[in-house]
Amino acid sequence: MPGGVKGLAAAERVAAIKESLAAGLAKVDPYHRLQGRPVRYQLTAGQTLEITFRDVPSIGEAEVNGVKRLLGGKSFCAVSPQSRERILVRFVVPLDQA
């Protein structure tokens, strides 16, 4: 089986993260800065998940911390310009955590 047990565990963790974001994003993002924006999930080497929200007008520390709580465990956030009026918000989640 490609990916073996580790690949299956990573896929299950990614599915759990997506479900957690779908269920909880509205509560931690009251101004809809992330909710409804284009989002991309990229798995790197089966060990790290990068979640990128595009076309975000702005982001506050409360929203970042809320998303990090939804992701669980250790995660990192980076914000970078996309255009003059929009930013990219990236969350990086190591999948090897319990």
Please sum up the structure shown.
This protein has helices at residues 4-28, 61-71, and strands spanning 39-44, 48-56, 76-81, 87-94.
How is this structure best described in words?
Helix content is 37%, strand content 30%. The protein is an alpha+beta fold. It has a single domain, classed as Alpha-Beta Plaits (2-Layer Sandwich). Strands 1-2-4-3 form a four-stranded antiparallel sheet, with helices on one face. Strand 1 (39-44) and strand 2 (48-56) form a beta hairpin. The protein is globular, with a radius of gyration of 14 Å.
The coarse overall form would be globular
Distance between the termini: 23 Å
Name of the top-level CATH class: Alpha Beta
Any guess at the CATH architecture? 2-Layer Sandwich
Number of domains: 1
Q: Report the sheet-strand fraction.
A: 25-35%
Order of helices and strands: HEEHEE
Radius of gyration: 14 Å
> Please, what is the average pLDDT?
90
Helix run count? 2
Helix and strand content put the structural class at alpha+beta
Low-confidence stretches: none
**Lateral arrangement of strands in the main beta sheet:** 1-2-4-3
Major sheet: 4 strands, antiparallel
CATH topology: Alpha-Beta Plaits
Record field, number of beta strands: 4
Helix content percent band: 25-40%
